[in-house]
């Protein structure tokens, strides 16, 4: 088979231990044509130094998923986000001659741009400076199977009108339990998401073709053609719902989201505690997403519903938990979501 070149974009923020395990698993895949791009979202720890030490062979990664492989030093192409956005990078002329397992592009952002724009910086760099046909967004807290990328690309190439492809995602600490089969279904009436195969033991019941409403951002493959037509991730989201929005935008242009059940990864997924920061963005972005993808009449109905939900949650936080910050986060998220305007036209490549 032919092997279209893929840019694998990994976003890091204060998570170098996870990133190194992810990188080592990626460098052991069987797929021969790829470029790894690590975007550091202005980490406040020693992530940059640790990634450089790993590439120099100074850190051996321990994992229950693979045995560390000694390899030649990995050549780092290191830039700032300003450099990759504003200039033509002369070193890129030499990158094609280096084996996939022996190169890494490291882009240091000057601030935390969130999931959406952080990844967009990598996408823009890949499309401008690398001769790639696909972009893969991969969470840094994942470990991948050796054939995961081969299977993703195979599904993307051999099915019509495919916009986004996602793998079978297992829970890292429970290797045979699924987090999600590709993605999720969305109820636009209530702005609710139902992840396919959520926390189910894998007994082969999802080993078949599926078309979710969207592919989860943990691991999502998209072609250059699709990105050039529909644009990148909407940075308004910052975090949460941006993956669903991307796939829905693709669907409006006739592109499907598809689940590649032979592709497997493991995700360090857990029930993290809620914070005002997270609740603000989740509430705001839920409303913003429904507004962008529904009719005015349906959005008006949803607004009444979500106002009741928001007030109920805010009052409960205030009265029963005495948490003023969380209560305020719900209300602020609601009102900001209502007034946000659609910025999709600003994210063309």
Automatic annotation (TrEMBL):
Record keyword Amino-acid biosynthesis present: no
Return the Gene3D superfamilies for the record. Answer: Spore Coat Polysaccharide Biosynthesis Protein SpsA, Chain A
- Molecular-function GO terms, alphabetical: glycosyltransferase activity
Q: Family membership, please give it.
A: Belongs to the glycosyltransferase 2 family.
Q: What is this protein called?
A: Glycosyltransferase 2-like domain-containing protein
Glycosyltransferase 2-like domain ranges (all copies): 8-61
Could you confirm whether the keyword Glycosyltransferase appears in this record?
yes
Alphabetically ordered keywords of this record: Glycosyltransferase, Transferase
Family annotation (SUPFAM superfamilies): Nucleotide-diphospho-sugar transferases
């Amino acid at each position: 088979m032919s092997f279209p070149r893929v840019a694998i974009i990994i976003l890091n923020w204060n998570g170098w231990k996870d990133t190194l395990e992810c990188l080592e698993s990626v460098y052991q895949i069987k797929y021969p044509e790829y470029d790894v791009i690590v975007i550091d979202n202005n980490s406040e720890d020693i992530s940059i130094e640790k990634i450089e030490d790993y590439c120099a062979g100074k850190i051996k990664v321990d994992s229950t998923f693979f045995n560390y492989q000694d390899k030649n030093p990995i050549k780092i192409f290191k830039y700032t986000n300003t450099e990759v956005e504003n200039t033509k990078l002369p070193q890129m002329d030499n990158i094609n001659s280096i084996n996939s397992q022996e190169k890494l592009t490291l882009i240091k952002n000057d601030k935390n741009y969130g999931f959406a724009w952080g990844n967009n910086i990598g996408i823009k760099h890949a499309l401008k400076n690398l001769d790639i046909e696909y972009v893969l967004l991969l969470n840094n807290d994942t470990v991948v199977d050796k054939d995961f990328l081969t299977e993703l690309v195979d599904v993307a190439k051999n099915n019509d009108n495919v916009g986004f492809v996602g793998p079978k995602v297992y829970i890292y600490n429970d290797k045979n339990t699924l987090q999600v089969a590709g993605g999720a279904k969305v109820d636009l009436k209530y702005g609710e998401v139902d992840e396919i195969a959520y926390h189910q033991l894998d007994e082969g019941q999802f080993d078949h073709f599926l078309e979710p409403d969207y592919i989860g951002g943990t691991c999502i493959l998209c072609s250059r053609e699709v990105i050039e037509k529909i644009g990148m991730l909407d940075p308004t989201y910052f975090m949460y719902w941006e993956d669903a929005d991307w796939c829905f935008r693709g669907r409006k242009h006739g592109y499907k989201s598809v689940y590649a059940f032979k592709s497997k990864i493991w995700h360090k997924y857990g029930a993290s505690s809620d914070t005002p920061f997270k609740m603000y963005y989740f509430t705001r972005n839920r409303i913003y997403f429904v507004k962008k993808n529904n009719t005015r009449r349906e959005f008006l109905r949803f607004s009444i519903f979500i106002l009741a939900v928001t007030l109920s949650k805010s009052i409960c936080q205030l009265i029963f938990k005495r948490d003023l910050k969380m209560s305020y986060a719900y209300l602020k998220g609601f009102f900001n979501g209502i007034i946000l305007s659609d910025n999709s036209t600003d994210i063309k490549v």
